[in-house]
Design the sequence.
């Protein structure tokens, strides 16, 4: 029996909806349903009456709900106690951060925070979008730093996971240049042959943003995927060597743009603005976390925009 099955069941008991609980638990509805069924198989009884709408619990489900809630409360309390003890000993603040933000934004931002509150011990775990969000939801990290755009939203309950906008960035298509500082590749819709495309993995945040940008183009761009990678820095290295066009954040290529090693290609319709946001769970109440959050709030009116 897995702990997440109990969390799934309690969520379903509260929402009375498989679809709402699946969204709340950051899984697909089929996967969520399989996990509820797995819990029922482990217990040897049906917990949910699937013939009714909204979803209702069976008599066994109503009886088991209290057991599940109490078990989760005790387990989370024990985990939090151990983590609090470790936190008090080391006073470390942990961050779950998208790969690109780790390199292009986080170091300077953290330095600004430390100039206000002094040196702090940090733990940074870079990852893809799904893993970073899940790490925050699971309580493994104090803060999450991610991109945000209304077309590719971050589906976290603002009552449980408040956020602050820290900065702005832009996703743009770029190409390496020739010896005359001209783009090696262009994105003209009249181009007969496909353009080599250095694309992100579909499970990454910017990969989802790319898919949205391309879905809005009429006619569709004539692209030929030649290299897939979840890491923007890897795609930038490939772009610099002339392997194709890549969508990269402006903050990650400012130096290369200024030196004319890379150049923006295509129309303004191929750009996507981003906010860089920080999220936290309201359940995180350690003094170090609250002090850090208070410092972020005091700086929230100052937004660092990319250099034009």
Sequence:
């Amino acid at each position: 029996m897995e702990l997440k099955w109990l969390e799934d069941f309690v969520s379903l008991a509260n929402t009375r909806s498989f679809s709402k609980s699946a969204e709340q638990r950051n899984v697909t509805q089929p996967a969520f349903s399989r996990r509820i069924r797995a819990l029922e198989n482990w217990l040897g009884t049906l917990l949910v009456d699937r013939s009714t709408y909204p979803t209702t619990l069976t008599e066994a489900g109503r009886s088991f709900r209290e057991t599940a809630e109490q078990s989760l409360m005790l387990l989370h309390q024990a985990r939090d106690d151990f983590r609090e003890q470790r936190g008090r000993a080391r006073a470390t603040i942990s961050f779950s951060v998208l790969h690109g933000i780790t390199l292009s934004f986080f170091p300077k931002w953290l330095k600004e925070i430390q100039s206000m509150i002094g040196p702090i011990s940090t733990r940074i775990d870079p990852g893809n979008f799904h893993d970073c969000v899940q790490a925050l939801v699971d309580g493994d990290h104090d803060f999450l730093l991610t991109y945000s755009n209304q077309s590719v939203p971050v589906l976290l309950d603002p009552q449980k996971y408040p956020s602050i906008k820290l900065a702005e960035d832009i996703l743009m298509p770029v190409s390496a240049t020739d010896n005359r500082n001209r783009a090696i590749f262009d994105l003209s819709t009249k181009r007969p042959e496909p353009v080599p495309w250095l694309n992100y993995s579909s499970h990454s945040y910017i990969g989802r943003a790319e898919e949205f940008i391309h879905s809005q183009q009429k006619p569709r761009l004539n692209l030929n995927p030649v290299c897939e990678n979840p890491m923007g820095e890897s795609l930038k290295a490939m772009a610099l060597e002339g392997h194709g066009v890549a969508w990269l954040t402006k903050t990650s290529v400012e130096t290369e743009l200024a030196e004319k090693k890379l150049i923006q290609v295509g129309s303004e319709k191929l750009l996507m603005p981003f906010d860089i946001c920080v999220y936290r769970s309201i359940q995180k109440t350690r003094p170090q976390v609250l002090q850090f959050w208070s410092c972020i709030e005091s700086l929230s009116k100052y937004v660092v925009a990319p250099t034009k």
